[in-house]
C-alpha cells in the first residue's frame, strides 16, 4: 500500500490553483509536505487540460477496463520546469506534462505526489479563456480550506509493476528516434482520423510533412496497438502547436511508441506499450544492465551526483564519477528501477526524480534476474566458448551467449522482443564471472 497524507485537499478558486503535496525528497532534505513553486501559469487553459490528462491516465485501466483505485500524479520541480507524471492502472500507458519556463519563485527542488481529487477535476475542466492562473505546489498555497483544514489521507495499492513500468519506459524510450513531426493543423487532422474503435491497431507512416495510416510496418512507421490508449491527447488538440511521434526501428510486430504534443509553454507526452495487454513492466529492457556485478555500486556513486537538474548529462557524470559512459548508463538503469530517473524524448536526455521506493527492492521487482543469478550461483551453467548449457528442472537449455538465443519456451514465444530469458542472463553472468576470476 502507498499512503498519501495531505495537509488539505488541492483546490482551484479565484484564479489560484493550490496543489497539496504528500511526502517527498527535496534538495533541502526529506519533507512531509514539500513546497516547490509559487508563480503564474501564463497559459492557464492548456495547463489545466494537461494536468487533467495526466490524472486521467492514472485513473484508467485501458486493458480490461474496470473500476479501480485512483493514484495521484507525481510532480518533480527541477528549477526550470515542473514535470507531472503518471502511469495507467494496467501499466501500459505512461503520461507526462512538462510545464516549461516557470514564471515565479522556485522554493525548492525535488519530487512529491500531488492531490487530484474529484472537485479539483471538475474545476480544472472548467478553466478556459486567456487569463493567467496562479499556481502553488505546496500546502501554503491552499486558498480554500474544508473540514477545518483536516488532514486528507489516501491509501492505495501501488503495484510493483507500476514502478517496474517507470524503469522500463526510460530504457525503452532512450532507444526511440523521432519518426514524424506534424504542425498543429496536420496533427489535429491525423489524430481525429484514427479509428473510433478503441481496440483497433494501426500503423502510422510518414508521408512528406504528414502522417498516414498504413496497413503494416514500413520505413519510419510506428505502430499503435489500441488507438483508445491515446485518447487523452484529444482534449488537448485545440491547443496543439505540433505533434511529434517517436519509435524504434521498424520491426515485424507491434512495438512501443511515444506521442508528444507541443502546447503553449508546455509539452504533453504519452508512451504506449506494444500491445494493450502488455504492461511496460514485463518488457525486460532493464535486465541486461542490471545483470552486471558493478551496477549497484555504480548506482550509489552516480546517485550522489544527481541534483534534480533539468537534464542529466551522461558525459559529465562519467567525468565526475570516473566511470565509463556505458557504466553510467547501466547505473542510471539501476537508479531507474528505484524510480530515480526518467527519460525526456524531446531533450534526448535523462532527468532526475525521486519516487518513494527502496532500491533494495530491485531484485524482488525483477524475478527473471533473480532466477538467473540463482542458476549462475548454483553451478547450473556450463560454458563452452560462446555457447552454454543451462541445466534446469525442466531440462537442459542450449544458449548462444552473444546472440542471446535459447531453446526454452520463453525465447520461442518472444524471440528477444521482451528482453533476455533467465537462461541467457545466467549464461552471461557466468561468463562475466569466469573472465573476472583471478588466474
UniProtKB/TrEMBL annotation:
Keywords annotated in UniProt: Metal-binding, Zinc, Zinc-finger
Entry GO MF terms: zinc ion binding
PROSITE patterns the record matches: ZF_SWIM
InterPro entries in the record: Znf_SWIM (IPR007527)
Pfam families recorded: SWIM
SWIM-type domain: residues covered: 397-432
Stated name of the protein: SWIM-type domain-containing protein
Organism: Nonomuraea glycinis
